[in-house]
Amino acid sequence: MTVDPYEARVARLEQQVAELADELLALMAKASGATVSGRNADTPCVWAEMPPDVAREHLERLQDWMSRVLVHHPRVVSVLHPCWYRHPAAVQMLLDVRRSWEYAYRHNPETPHLSIAWWQQDLPNLEHALARELNHCTGVRHDPDRIPVPLVDPAEVHRHLSQRAPHPHP
């Protein structure tokens, strides 16, 4: 049995053309200022870093998505408190899950495994994480107790690393 010597080369070229087409589309979208998930592709969606006007716009889009999509998932909606928007971690979770939903359902409809992952992972994780985050809410105090991050002294790190025995490479 002989293998066509050009078969593997043609397959590689087809893959390269597909990758180049994807790159070209991404560059064209970036150059035109196209948005992904209602934002410029270069703009991070970090709630804690958003100026008030940008945060207001994201919150409006998020509520629109919640009323169109999340409303069909009552287990998640049932853990939300009316003050969810006052909880930065809850808002960030919702923003991230919305972006994940948009990526799976709007931007990649040809890849059904993304929508399955959204259903099986993102949605249940959102339900549990929101329940944990909002569980401490008293209706008066919306921020969780701040736990200081255990930062280390650079001199201590240097001392520790200099005393560490090197691991031999196999």
Radius of gyration in whole Å, from Cα?
Answer: 23 Å
Low-confidence stretches: 32-42
Looking across the biggest beta sheet, what order are the strands in?
A: 1-2
Given the structure, what is the number of helices? 6
Shape: flat
**How would you classify the helix and strand content by structural class?**
mainly alpha
Q: Could you spell the SSE succession in H and E letters?
A: HEEHHHHH
**Secondary structure tally: strands:** 2
- Percent of sequence in beta strands: under 5%
| Integer average pLDDT | 79
Biggest pleated sheet? 2 strands, antiparallel
Termini separation comes to: 42 Å
Fraction in helix: 55-70%
Structure write-up:
With 170 residues, the protein is mainly α. Helix content is 59%, strand content 2%. It contains 6 helices and 2 strands, in the order αββααααα. It has helices at 7-32, 52-68, 74-77, 88-107, 112-134, 154-163, and strands at residues 35-36, 39-40. The chain has a two-stranded antiparallel ribbon. A hairpin with a 2-residue loop joins strand 1 (35-36) and strand 2. Helix 2 packs across helix 4 and helix 4 runs antiparallel to helix 5. The longest helix is centred in the N-terminal third of the chain and has 26 residues, at 7-32. The chain starts with 6 loop residues before the first helix and ends in a 7-residue tail after the last helix. 11% of the residues are buried. Mean pLDDT is 79; it is low at 32-42.
Structure, briefly:
With 170 residues, the protein is mainly α.
